[in-house]
Amino acid sequence: MSLLTLLPFIVLIGAMFLMTRSAKKKQQQAADMRNQMQPGSGVRTIGGMYATVKEVGEDTVLLDAGPGVELLFAKNSIGAVLTDDEYNRIVHGVEHDLKSDADIVPDDASSLTETDEPAADADQDDKPVDLGKKDADEETSDDVAAEAKTDAEPKKSDGGSEAK
User: 5 vs 10, 11, 12, 17, 18, CA distance in Å?
Assistant: First the structure.
């Protein structure tokens, strides 16, 4: 056999070796992360539940999911061990801003357009705004005129039984 015919098999074996090596490395990192869990640290399970570690056993973890709610999970079901800042941000909505002295941008632009001077046009705000609507008397007279105009026009046959 020549080296050229063995080359595809060698490449295939090399690719399989590299893929299994990276998978083992990821499994080792996950196991190290799970072994670093301590009581009081925040975790996310593979099901997406956030909780605090209460006790760590050999193969199990006791989680505190809320007041009076304790759950027993397998260590393999812990998806991530979170830092305190990340856990508080996700669960409690607490943001730790590193730039606390920065200017605060308002949620709306109304505070940017307000002035300290009293409004000179305060009496104009009390007047009703004309949106182009007509009074009720004008509307009825226009409607009657429009109906009279349509009644005066001859109606076309729709091709019913009268047209033979």
Answer: 10, 11, 12, 20, 22
